[in-house]
Design goal:
The complex is a heterodimer. Chain A is mainly α. Chain A has one domain. Chain A is about 65% helix and about 0% strand. In chain A, helix 2 crosses helix 3 and helix 2 packs across helix 4. The longest helix of chain A is centred in the C-terminal third of the chain and has 49 residues. The N terminus of chain A is likely disordered. By secondary structure, chain B is mainly α. Chain B has one domain. Helices cover about 90% and strands about 0% of the residues of chain B. In chain B, helix 2 crosses helix 3. The N terminus of chain B is likely disordered. The chains are: A mainly alpha, B mainly alpha.
Chain lengths: ~280, ~180
């Protein structure tokens, strides 16, 4: 049922077998090709799943808009729905009409994040790419750089820095306290949380599913049990774990979409704030 | 593997994965930007067509309204013309009738006049003829009575004329009395 857990091949009541809950090792797949360099992972399952996610996201967009017509087909309608969702729910509410130029970027972020997330549910892959902090970091750092670029371009270096460090309407005497807090908050914590929020939910969700799957697999021992009653009991508990797995899979799907949305929404809010300047 | 995992930090950002992620992100961004004009041009075209359609419908409506107005005016005009024509025809009819009546009256008068003249002419003619005949008859009668003396025609005619003048005078007096 679950590839990582099934490798153990060990069930309840088997002699010399004890349950090993899936741990963080799930997120450190063995490299197929090791570069042998410090701070590298080499070519791993993440690389493969990343390529699949890339193909899904780029392919979706390519094939739905390749023959964009005035009267849209099914694919184009989906693409348009996605665009109008991002425009009406995200950019227009946070940046107004000015934000329309960021729609392609935010659309890319959404497509890419959602397809990376959804890889956690694709049988055979079952590894959300975003559960590796490196990938959310790419996007969060990109947004952080863009956030600075937009602010500096609009208000100059001084204007941008000042707008981010000195909140409006704060008494002068409290500024020595507020400015370092704001600096830390805006320039360190915010990009960090931006990437970690996505990473952590995907990490936790994947671990949760792994626990359900491994537990269900471990408990299932209908024939190897000391007596039939215990065998049935183990099958029953295994069934409960299976139901939990299915329920949480559906829930994960929801979380994956929500997290992609949240990431994009926050990006949009940050960019809008940078355009707006001091507030 | 467990030992390896324990050494690993889950908050790792390995630079090779970061680079792969960046490349993937840029590729998708490139695809989206590349395809973007296609979608927006289709959307703009659709908006144009819808706007154009509304515009055309409005124009057609205005045109139809104008034509309707024109037709109504034309209809009113036609009604007015019809009424005027009718009035004119009535007048003409009356005029024609009056004219015909006048003509007929004139014609009748003329005919009556002509008839009177004819009658008068006939009467004069008859009178003249009668006069000559009466003359001849009278001379014949008188010659028979008186004999051959009146054979001289010059005398004869003078006598007859004198007689007739007297007769005419008498007759003229009679007629004057009659009238």
């Amino acid at each position: 049922m679950y590839s990582a857990a099934s490798e153990e091949g060990c069930h309840l009541f088997d002699p010399g077998c004890k349950f090993e809950a899936p741990g963080t090792s799930l997120f450190f797949p063995n490299p197929w090709l090791d570069f042998g360099l410090p701070a590298t992972s080499g070519i791993t399952k993440y690389t493969l799943v990343l390529v699949v996610a890339l193909l899904v996201a780029a392919g979706f967009w390519y094939f739905t808009t390749r023959n964009a017509k005035v009267v849209p087909g099914r694919g184009q309608s989906m693409a348009e729905m996605l665009v109008s969702f991002i425009r009406d729910q995200i950019t227009r509410t946070t940046m107004g009409k000015e934000g329309d130029k960021f729609i392609p970027l935010l659309l890319t972020l959404f497509l890419f994040i959602f397809s990376m997330n959804i890889m956690g549910l694709i049988p055979g892959l079952q590894l959300p790419v975003t559960s590796n902090l490196a990938f959310p970091a790419v996007l969060a750092i990109f947004v952080f750089i863009l956030w600075n670029a937009v602010g500096i371009r609009r208000h100059g270096v001084g204007g941008h820095i000042k707008a981010r460090l000195v909140p409006g309407g704060v008494p002068v005497w409290i500024l020595p306290v507020v400015v370092p807090i704001e600096a830390l908050s805006n320039f360190v914590i915010r990009p960090a949380t931006h990437m970690i929020r996505l990473f952590a939910t995907m990490f936790a969700g994947h671990l949760l599913l792994a626990v359900f799957a491994a537990g269900g697999w471990y408990m299932f021992n209908l024939f190897g049990a000391p007596n039939a009653g215990l065998g049935l009991l183990s099958a029953g508990f295994s069934g409960i774990a299976l139901i939990g797995f299915l329920v949480f899979t559906a829930f994960e799907l929801f979380i994956m979409a929500v997290q992609a949305y949240v990431f994009v929404l926050l990006s949009s809010i940050y960019l809008g704030e940078a355009m707006e300047g001091a507030h | 593997m467990i030992e390896l995992a324990a050494e690993e930090n889950i908050l790792r950002i390995h630079w090779d994965e970061f680079v792969f992620g960046s490349i993937a992100f840029l590729i998708i961004l490139g695809v989206v930007y590349k395809m973007w004009p296609k979608l927006t041009s289709a959307l703009d075209e659709r908006a144009n067509q819808i706007e154009g359609g509304i515009e055309r419908a409005k124009k057609a409506e205005a045109e139809a309204e104008e034509i309707r107005q024109q037709y109504r005016e034309k209809l009113d005009e036609a009604h007015r013309q019809y009424a005027a024509e009718l009035e004119k025809a009535k007048e003409q009819r009356a005029a024609i009738i009056a004219e015909a009546r006048d003509e007929a009256q004139a014609e009748s008068r003329r005919i009556i006049e002509a008839a009177h003249q004819q009658i008068e002419a006939d009467r004069q003619h008859a009178l003249a003829q009668l006069r000559t005949e009466i003359g001849t008859l009278s001379t014949d009668l008188a010659s028979r009575i008186v004999g051959e003396s009146l054979n001289d025609s010059g005398v004869q005619s003078r006598v007859v004329d004198r007689f007739l003048e007297e007769l005419e005078q008498a007759e003229g007096a009679d007629r004057a009395e009659v009238r």
